[in-house]
């Protein structure tokens, strides 16, 4: 039972917690009537089973974020993204506010401001993370509801907002076959044949950056025309300068990747060219760092280089665009969905995912089509 108690010129409300300890709410009241009404509200919440300790609900978001980070377990790369969103965006804007003082309208207004500087996907990620923390606070009975539950950021309809207020979304640059070869040739000049083969491998397998750079020689079954992405150590991870081998992005990313004959020959030359455990390494035998590869090889190859009198091939393109190129290639070649989903490391949805299977004949047909595509791409090259 809660009760009102006079304290100097003010009234306060006191109550017993679950352990029988007398506690005081953080609010002060000018009159006894106001205090008694607040005490009655506490008692009502107790009877309904909806009581929230006022001290918990007044926890600043920054304090709750610190506790939440310690218990929310995610991959290191995801944690790095979460830390950035929290430290750069969420905590500076709302960290000082108690949990029960966060308002949906304020968050939405703030998110609209972010949209002027960041992509829609980034803003959605920031808002989703904040909602995730507030939902956890509800589950811990620190607040009764998540004030931004279901808040969705969408683009305004045409004419409803000035385009100058919205950061334009850059369309993903997906290279054509000729552009892939042009980029690969330039990468060879800058980084050697192994780097060139990395680009070609990504374009003809759809492997992610971490899967290619984390590819172990023991998982290169070139005599049997396939690679294996190990489900435990098949990807190279890089977070805040630290590098290690770990699982690929998803469970289905641990997969077999069939190879056309031309690619097995190129890969064999790379594997025979050094004695390191990983298939693709730098000239001095180290793991590839994404930023170094991008700065020294990829960006000049795509964007052009005035010192070498190179004109741009595909400005702004990223290495991941090679994965998109490969999926487009499979579509153009008429490869079946079962093969495509397995090859890309995605789970096929619905009943098709239950009853569709990849046969040896389907694998061979795809190898033949990829080999033909390579021949078509390179026959007329100088």
Automatic annotation (TrEMBL):
Span of domain Tyr recombinase: 170-368
Record GO biological process: DNA integration; DNA recombination
Keywords annotated in UniProt: DNA integration, DNA recombination, DNA-binding
Gene3D superfamilies per record: 1.10.150.130, Intergrase catalytic core (1.10.443.10)
GO MF entry, a single one: DNA binding
Stored InterPro entries: DNA_brk_join_enz, Integrase-like_cat_sf, Integrase_catalytic, Integrase_recombinase_N, Integrase_SAM-like_N, Phage_Integrase
Annotated family: Belongs to the 'phage' integrase family.
Name of the molecule in the record: Tyrosine-type recombinase/integrase
Species: Actinomadura rudentiformis
